[in-house]
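re: ur question from earlier - yeah i can do the single chain one, its not a big deal. heres the input i used so u can compare w yours
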Amino acid sequence: MSPSTPQDNRPANRLVDETSPYLLQHAHNPVDWYPWGEEAIQKARDEDRPIFLSLGYSACHWCHVMEHESFETPAIAAVMNERFVNIKVDREERPDLDQIYMNAVQLITGRGGWPMSVFLTPDLRPFYGGTYFPPEARMGMPGFPDVLLRVSEIWQQHLDEVLDSAEKLTAAISDMVPPVATETGVDDATLRKAMQALLRSSDRTYGGFGAAPKFPHPMDIRLLLRCWQRFQSDEALDVVKLTLDKMAAGGIYDQLGGGFHR
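and the output i got, formated as tokens:
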């Protein structure tokens, strides 16, 4: 299905004017989606409503599952529209927002992923969040409609506690932001320490870093190449070559268009 094809001839929402394939995939949801911007934020302030922020990307399987199960369901969309200002973000367009709110979700739940579902105050401070929520409770996960109603009730009945939680969470996120790099750059000792950490975590059989499931780590590869160039480390180069060879021989390599999925 084309990203801009209406589902069941439904009218379009505000995402229809966006250029992101991911946002266009949601342009005909019954959810009153807003793109990230001042219009949505001001609406939340004016109406004193919490924001439901959903972040994902077009190749994300569970993003599509949650859309089909919840965002295309009129009854669930009605609750979202009545009680929240709903914002949809493509993490590939706004990696800065993705990083900030991913930190929040990881602090709240101990894990992260996409779709990312975050509830914010009108001044954009997170106070609750998660990843994929099913349409009804299962496998230890609460149902998304139950989450919506519970968050709305807490917002209305325990606002002071929500704002206190948001303030503490925001402070914790601020502590996670790395310091700004100095003009002197990174010294050799720090580079060597980073290189050794990557070499210890590298998979010498299948390439990459850590255990399955794996994702491409282009910044780690570039760092090892930098270390190879600076320190003449054959081990760093060997890890890079093995990783790239395995990626090129695997299913994430686009044989027709070039490049790598994700």
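The radius of gyration is 21 Å. not sure if urs matches, ping me
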